[in-house]
Design brief:
Length: 238
């Protein structure tokens, strides 16, 4: 499948089974509501309960996304069943994968900054130049590890081998086989589709009383199905 076929399929996929789209949308909406409501609650116990519900819901959705990738890698048109236990465990694992591939570039940047502590002794122009250099390095690092993290997640979904997905060298070699540029273009197009949806739903959000709820529901549900379906098809065709 080429990019056009992958994204055409992924855009239609969320609506293949409306009942599951509805359930995921409601869970995503509740996760967001509990998360935001907990922050405004003056009751610490209630805030903690809201936070727990939001975290559990988010992990479940993340795990369901893994199920979508797993089905899509082989080109299956089946929309996976909701399985709380498996989805929750997969959600924990996929979240850890995401954290690991985020922490590594963060640590690298922290180490670079600490090593170059001498910068405080430089003049202003030198500090600005050094800061700009670090910013550029940070952007490059986070792009690279963002690409690695995306493929690591797909690798985990396909093999169900959590440890293997954290093997950066194996994931790096797999990305090289697919092509860093190909993955980067894929992620870029994926982001553009979601951005267009956000802009369109921005108009829906202006509907009095229920607009924000409707737009949040649609964005949450569509993103889960679209992003994971397109990733699974892309990975499966490479």
């Amino acid at each position: 499948m080429n990019f056009s076929e992958i994204f055409s399929d992924a855009i239609k996929y969320p609506f293949a089974e409306p009942n599951k789209f509805l359930i995921i949308g409601v869970i995503a909406l509740l996760s967001g509501l509990f998360s935001s409501t907990g922050g405004f609650s003056s009751d610490s116990i209630l805030s903690i309960l809201f936070a727990i519900v939001a975290i559990v819901a988010s992990l479940f959705i993340a795990g369901y996304g893994v199920s979508i990738i797993r089905e899509s890698v082989g080109g299956s048109v089946v929309v996976p069943e909701l399985d709380f236990n498996r989805n929750f465990v997969d959600g924990i694992k996929s979240t850890i994968i995401g954290i690991v591939y985020f922490i590594i570039p963060t640590l690298i940047m922290v180490i670079l900054v600490l090593i170059s502590g001498v910068a405080v002794k430089l003049d202003l122009s030198a500090i600005v130049a050094l800061g700009a250099t670090y910013l550029l390095v940070a952007v490059i690092l986070f792009i690279i590890f963002g690409i690695l993290g995306e493929i690591a997640l797909a690798r985990f979904a396909r093999t169900e081998d959590f440890v293997s997905s954290l093997n950066i060298f194996e994931v790096f070699n797999e990305v090289k086989q697919i092509g860093f540029f190909n993955v980067l273009i894929f992620i870029f197009v994926q982001a553009i589709v979601v951005l267009v949806l956000i802009i369109l739903l921005g108009f829906v959000a202006f509907i009095p009383f229920i607009g924000a709820l409707i737009s949040s529901f649609l964005l949450g549900a569509f993103s889960v199905f679209f992003i994971n379906r397109s990733l699974g098809l892309f990975y499966g065709n490479n």
